[in-house]
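A further point concerns the way the authors explain their paired sequence and structure data. For illustration, here is how one protein appears when written out as sequence plus structure tokens:
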Amino acid sequence: MRLLAALTLIFSFSAFAFFPVNPLVQVRGNVVSAQVYNPYYEPILCEGFAFGRTYSGVVLQSRVADIIPAGGYRFAYVHTNAFLNPFVQGWAQIHCRFVGRYY
């Protein structure tokens, strides 16, 4: 009975588990863009942050949280003033989970 309860608990949490994605990040002087693509046959919910480090060392961020349909993609953008303080580095930390079966 305890084994059944433990397995039920483990599988119920794994059904809603987030998995990391590898976003495509592009850095330009005034904007850092992070693109997340959904290659699966059902929608996914993605949450996370996109970051950009400026020439002066300041780190700016943008939060993203959206449902991406099958075959779709979403962007997260971080902006700065390119003339005075352009971006020199950008990265993103985004995690997704399947939502199609759990509405």
